[in-house]
């Protein structure tokens, strides 16, 4: 029954030398079936019709044994001859309406789409499922039209969700460059809750080389199947529902406890940061009780990621070489499940930085993204939102923060929307910081204006937060709030000192106070947070600023 097809692991075949090699396709597909693929599409753009039919018959026999539907790419005549379950049609193939006339209602017809328009037409013409792509560049198919990334897929899913009934019901798989390293992240991010209660998500992933090109095909398919049914290591846990996150006394207790955990566990703080702040960041890490390493070499990231510390990726000097190293480190930390904080310094200031941000967001999952107002707006755009009714933001000049553009309510809305889409924590810094995991949002007004006059204060806040998140990974939002409070209350204490005359004398005093605050909390000289300026924002209204 075509309505009961399981699209979760959709295999597309490839008979070329580069992928299949000298192996026999039918035997390879048999292995993939044993590994657990749920649909097989026979795709062969070069063989003669006679050979196509012969192979399709053999494939159909194997697929039937496993109760898996066989779909033929492009060739309706071959599907009819073999009597298999359906066809898959690209944009240059026979159109879906014509194919439906020939195949009848019981057969499955799938269509390749890479835009909202193509999706709309494919639904109107009666497709049963859509193959949405190209997700990532792939050497398997050279003539792909568009690389649309996660955001392109999200836009099409969002359109399908908001269109008429047939669109809501249509099944979807995504395709292009999916493999064991990225499949969990791709599905995790595409299943992000949107603003509605039952958002449309993908029903499966379609892969070619990750299975057909594997040395052990059965094992590769089985591994993908397991990965699809297990949450990724980096998945954020949802806070327990009986936890009153709006209680400031609970928040203080947790924040003080988190400071002690950083002190006792001394987590590794791996900083891939710009030259300007390396020294300061290492000193801050030591003062709060973390163990810093300033390594910009992505090749050593897999070893460092095993130490279960936190990684800070600071886009301050986003050269192509740095980005390549970042990508290696992101893969390593995502695989280990350890937190990564992204600091998209200057995002929005130049088109190169915008591109760099897109590249980084496509490279992996970030536990927390922190930035000033303009940077987080650039993140919202890179995440696929259109910013509407944007006030005159003006061109960003340097990487300093500038004045607030939006009201507190609007900022709360922006961070919570982006966090809920990315399924992470988003922090927008400013005189009042706003932080959210999409469900819980806080405004924090601690800190001191000297912080804004010191180079690297934003970057080193990132260092602090990442150490806190790796020490207390069970609730990343709460860990980040604890880190911010340690940092900003130490800044207040430093600014109060009589020996502090301005931003210059502030710096050494600040490092002293970071250390002093940590020790005072550990020794329980500080047991309550006097001067806490945190406001839980329970009802973040839709400010209508971000459109999907
Ligand atoms: N169709 P791999 S991409 C067959 O974008 C195909 O429509 C695509 O191969 C599309 O899993 C693609 O090896 C190849 O990256 C996908």
UniProtKB/TrEMBL annotation:
One GO molecular-function entry: ATP binding
Catalytic activity: 2-[(2R,5Z)-2-carboxy-4-methylthiazol-5(2H)-ylidene]ethyl phosphate + 4-amino-2-methyl-5-(diphosphooxymethyl)pyrimidine + 2 H(+) = thiamine phosphate + CO2 + diphosphate; 2-(2-carboxy-4-methylthiazol-5-yl)ethyl phosphate + 4-amino-2-methyl-5-(diphosphooxymethyl)pyrimidine + 2 H(+) = thiamine phosphate + CO2 + diphosphate; 4-methyl-5-(2-phosphooxyethyl)-thiazole + 4-amino-2-methyl-5-(diphosphooxymethyl)pyrimidine + H(+) = thiamine phosphate + diphosphate; 5-(2-hydroxyethyl)-4-methylthiazole + ATP = 4-methyl-5-(2-phosphooxyethyl)-thiazole + ADP + H(+)
Signal sequence region: none
GO cellular component: cytoplasm
This protein's UniProt keywords: ATP-binding, Kinase, Magnesium, Metal-binding, Nucleotide-binding, Thiamine biosynthesis, Transferase
Presence of the UniProt keyword Magnesium in the record: yes
Cross-referenced NCBIfam families: PRK09355.1, thiE
Protein name per its UniProtKB record: TMP-TENI-domain-containing protein
